[in-house]
Write a structure and sequence with these properties.
Blueprint: H1 4-16, H2 20-28, H3 34-41, H4 45-57, E1 61-63, E2 69-71, H5 73-88, H6 92-106, H7 117-128, H8 130-150
Antiparallel strand pairs: 1-2
Helix pairs in contact: 2-4, 3-4, 6-7
């Protein structure tokens, strides 16, 4: 980052994208109209227009004739970055499952994890597989060893 001014400009774009509807809109606009996107995601047109205005102010989209909008070159680049970002960043659900699995293995299960019964059963099966049991046994042996050392 070369300057504070550039950082401010980027922060303004990030703030402008800080809503799922705006991210969906910038991704899908071009192949679909604003009305089509609104109908697909179940957003009322006045609400969608507010999001359109926000992206328009950031110069990510522009009017492309009449009441139609399209992405600007900057909007095209932002849409590409969003796609790349979503491929790199694991979903929160996957992170939550990994954290829950770790807690299960350590015996630190917390209630209210947000996982479904199916997810929990699947994670328990993974832990209770022969490989999972071996890892759990090693961890238990290590804990016992530390307990004996502290006595």
């Amino acid at each position: 980052m070369d300057s504070e001014l550039e950082a401010e400009r980027l922060a303004k774009v990030f703030r402008g994208l800080c809503h799922p509807v705006r991210i969906i809109l910038i991704e899908r606009l071009g192949s679909k109209s604003v009305t089509q996107i609104a109908n697909e995601i179940g957003v009322k047109l006045p609400t969608m227009q507010r999001h359109v205005n926000g992206l328009f102010e950031l110069r990510l989209i522009e009017k492309s004739g009449g009441r139609h909008y399209g992405r600007t070159p900057l909007g095209d680049n932002v849409a590409k970055l969003i796609k790349q970002f979503s491929e790199v960043v694991p979903s929160f659900e996957e992170l939550e499952k990994a954290q829950f699995k770790k807690h299960l293995q350590q015996g630190l299960v917390k209630f209210g994890s947000g996982l479904t019964k199916h997810d929990i059963a699947k994670l328990l099966d993974e832990i209770q597989s022969p490989e999972g049991r071996a890892k759990k046994g090693l961890a238990r042996d290590e804990r016992k060893g530390r307990a004996k050392e502290s006595q």
